Amino acid sequence: MSKSADAGLEALFAAAKAARERAYAPYSRFFVGAAIRAPSGAIYSGCNVENAAYPQGSCAEAGAIAAMALAGERRIEAIVVVGDGEDLCTPCGGCRQRIREFADAATRVHVAGPEGVRASFGLEELLPHSFGPGHLGR
Ligand code: THU
Description:
With 138 residues, this protein is α+β, with helices and mostly antiparallel strands. It has one domain: Cytidine Deaminase, domain 2 (3-Layer(aba) Sandwich), CATH 3.40.140. 25% of the residues lie in helices and 20% in strands. It has helices at 9-20, 60-70, 93-100, 123-126; strands spanning 33-37, 43-47, 78-82, 108-113, 116-122. The protein has a five-stranded mixed sheet. The longest helix is centred in the N-terminal third of the chain and has 12 residues, at 9-20. The radius of gyration is 14 Å and the shape is globular. The mean pLDDT is 95. The chain binds tetrahydrodeoxyuridine. Tetrahydrodeoxyuridine binds next to helix 2.
């Protein structure tokens, strides 16, 4: 785990924190925001959206990825995930795979609390030996 220098990190953190304000999490009360910076420099954000039928809830990262894809972008340069509490709000297993789809060796995953970024990872650290588009010839 290492903190990494990232010029646009403050703006990306601000976007993730703002997204967290919109989180719909009446069941867990665990509010999460995520923001992706894509190669164009644009930022795409998302929040968790829970559901009374619990498994239908979705993570903040999934919302941010959907917004990125809708805009026609296909690569995650960096993503910031903002949660709360003492523990690092690292992406869940499913979201690690979601990020993997659009990641490369340079992609940075920054994990933050409301006060700022706490830790930064490469995707290989979070999801080693992963399965990806290359396995399907893409
Ligand atoms: N959650 C996220 O949105 N992203 C994460 O990285 C971790 C967990 C959400 C899912 C659920 O709505 C709540 O946090 C508690 O698990």
